[in-house]
Amino acid sequence: MLQRTILRASRQASCRTPAFAPLRQPLVSTRAATAPAARWYSDAPAAKEGEAAEKKEEEAPNDEAAKVKTDIEKKDKEIIELKDKYLRSVADFRNLQERTKREIQGAKDFAIQRFARDLVESVDNLDRALGTVAPEKLKPADGNADLIALHDGIKMTDTILISTLKKHGLERFDPSASAEKFNPNVHEAVFQAPQPDKEDGTCFHTQQKGFMLNGRVLRPAKVGVVKNA
């Protein structure tokens, strides 16, 4: 009885052996199913690294361009500052040239100022000598021939001296001769007197003639001014 049971079990086991063959199919199918999943996980990091590299490559030129732009702006600012300094230096140099030129010209024009101030006293003496002779004594018929000759010689000397001084910028002026209006910058009022036939403020008498040196008053003229009021 026992032997029969064992025999049956062995037969059943031998018959069931083919049932284990399909077990290989799930193994193959499992490997086939899992293989793509493994490849997907292996490709994903590579793709992310590529994107990061591309981003770095894009960011690198942008940073370099920004740096170049900043450097250019800085250089432009430096150029503007240097140009401004250059123009200021040129303007200062030109002003210095003009000022130096004026000072040199002024030194030339007024180098003889002290000498001219001392010389006008001698010119005044000649003018006084001419004024001491009355006009009626200078007539050839009634006057002294020697006095007339002396007067003519002094007048000639005065004329030549005034002409020579004028060449060097020294000029004599007589306000009363042209009835000039009183100018405190040029004239010195010594006295005032009424003159019905003249306008107020007019120079009607010259006590001492004035002198100009290259347009500058060397000595003001001493005059009498009209005051009718």
UniProtKB/TrEMBL annotation:
Domain of life: Eukaryota
Name this polypeptide is given: GrpE protein homolog
Compositionally biased spans, kind Basic and acidic residues: 46-67
Key words, A-Z: Chaperone, Mitochondrion
InterPro entries: GrpE, GrpE_CC, GrpE_head
Entries under HAMAP family matching the protein: GrpE
BP-aspect Gene Ontology terms: protein folding; protein import into mitochondrial matrix
Species annotation: Ampelomyces quisqualis
Positions of the UniProt region annotated as Disordered: 39-67
Pfam family name, one: GrpE
Protein family: Belongs to the GrpE family.
Subcellular location: Mitochondrion matrix
GO terms assigned for molecular function: adenyl-nucleotide exchange factor activity; protein homodimerization activity; protein-folding chaperone binding; unfolded protein binding
Biological role stated in the UniProt entry: Essential component of the PAM complex, a complex required for the translocation of transit peptide-containing proteins from the inner membrane into the mitochondrial matrix in an ATP-dependent manner.
GO cellular component labels: PAM complex, Tim23 associated import motor
